[in-house]
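User: tokens in, sequence out, please.
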């Protein structure tokens, strides 16, 4: 039913008076309000003594009018960041273009909000009812998912307009495919080709519609032993390979091993100091960058994210060299820090015009370090290069040329540093 704007606004006033202010209706005034004749002819409003009241047919129409107005306010406040003083003015114009269907789409986009910016309840629509009926069966907040579960973002229910805008700007929108990667220390999920790390508040605001077959798949996985070979699909194996062979993870094992080789427990202590500077500070930069928006994902998939990160890493490398050198740390650890710096400088230069695989640089470099320090018996560590190359190709993070260049660069630069320092293969 198409009503004039004045008739719709009168319906809003009636609904508010009856439903929220507990009044019998609106008192009859002289002259009668504009739009009243139209509503009486449509049998949506009738006169009951000295009051104007809604008819049974008028109640749902009035609720829809209020719903459109308050959804318009939420859209203006949450997405368009309209100042509060002008919300009602602009919402009065916008609500009249929210025809049936459009208001449902906006409600879904906004996450089926329950209250307007002023704290008043928004009458529920058909889409909200459908959401309630299907939530237990199909839809769950991201924070309730288990790693490996996937689906499509159904809606985002967030009261913080800035955070909502940030998510939308990053491409986290209803309809986007999403998969939860891990739950601790933060919720890490993949949307499209990017990864995001969020806190529990944001994870609980992103609602995911799980496909039926995905629910069955997850149930099946939970009922059998979780060994790597039997249970991980190819994409999960590729993802975990990328995680485990990241330079920050590898360094947790390489540095203590070399520290122990060089000076026992004292060397391990210096290795911890080196790790805090070389990996702790760059990791802190990435985590802060994810929250503030200057980093797209944990793996720095965008080439433009890399130069600044490598500069931060280079600064940490120089700091580590100074601390280890002046503090009298074992020479092998100092050489390892020097290798870090040389690799970082090379990667910074290349990343300014081309994307190179940092994973392959790290794996090739660390394997070469192990060969120089522990001897030819460590040659087997180079076998990890094909696995990492497959994982990065499978996940479409790099081209074959970028992978080969990373491996060769890591091996040659590391070999050059240790040869310059007079350390031969043992």
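Assistant: Sequence out:
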């Amino acid at each position: 039913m198409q009503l004039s704007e004045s008739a719709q606004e009168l319906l809003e006033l009636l609904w508010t008076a009856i439903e929220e202010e507990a009044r019998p209706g609106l008192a009859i005034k002289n002259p009668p309000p504009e739009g009243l004749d139209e509503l009486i002819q449509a049998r949506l409003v009738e006169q009951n003594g000295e009051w104007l009241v809604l008819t049974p047919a008028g109640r749902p129409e009035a609720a829809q009018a209020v719903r459109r107005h308050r959804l318009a306010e939420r859209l203006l406040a949450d997405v368009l960041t309209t100042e509060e003083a002008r919300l009602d003015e602009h919402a009065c114009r916008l609500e009249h273009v929210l025809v049936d269907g459009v208001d449902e789409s906006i409600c879904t986009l906004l996450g089926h909000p329950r209250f307007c910016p002023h704290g008043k309840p928004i009458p529920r629509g058909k889409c909200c009812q459908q959401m309630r009926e299907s939530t237990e069966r199909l839809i769950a907040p991201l924070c309730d998912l288990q790693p490996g579960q996937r689906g499509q973002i159904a809606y985002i229910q967030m009261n913080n307009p800035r955070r909502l805008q940030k998510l939308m700007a990053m491409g986290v929108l209803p309809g986007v495919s999403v998969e939860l990667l891990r739950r601790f220390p933060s919720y890490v999920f993949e949307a499209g080709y990017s990864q995001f790390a969020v806190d529990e508040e944001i994870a609980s605001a992103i609602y995911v519609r799980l496909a039926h077959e995905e629910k069955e798949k997850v149930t099946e996985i939970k009922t059998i032993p979780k060994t790597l070979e039997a249970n991980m699909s190819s994409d999960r194996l590729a993802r975990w390979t990328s995680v485990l062979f990241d330079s920050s993870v590898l360094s947790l094992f390489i540095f203590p091993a070399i520290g122990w080789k060089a000076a026992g427990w004292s060397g391990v202590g210096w290795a911890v100091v080196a790790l805090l500077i070389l990996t702790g500070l760059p990791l802190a930069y990435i985590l802060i960058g994810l929250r503030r928006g200057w980093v797209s994902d944990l793996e720095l998939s965008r080439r433009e994210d890399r130069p600044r990160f490598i500069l931060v890493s280079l600064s940490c490398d120089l700091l580590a060299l100074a601390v280890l050198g002046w503090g009298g740390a074992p020479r092998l650890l100092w050489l390892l820090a020097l290798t870090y710096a040389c690799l970082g400088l090379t990667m910074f230069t290349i990343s300014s015009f081309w994307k190179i695989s940092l994973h392959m640089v790290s794996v090739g470099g660390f394997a070469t370090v192990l060969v120089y320090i522990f001897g030819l018996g460590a040659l087997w560590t180079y076998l990890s290069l094909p696995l990492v190359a497959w994982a990065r190709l499978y996940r479409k993070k790099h081209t074959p040329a970028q992978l080969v260049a990373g491996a060769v660069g890591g091996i040659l630069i590391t070999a050059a540093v240790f040869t310059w320092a007079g350390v031969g293969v043992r």
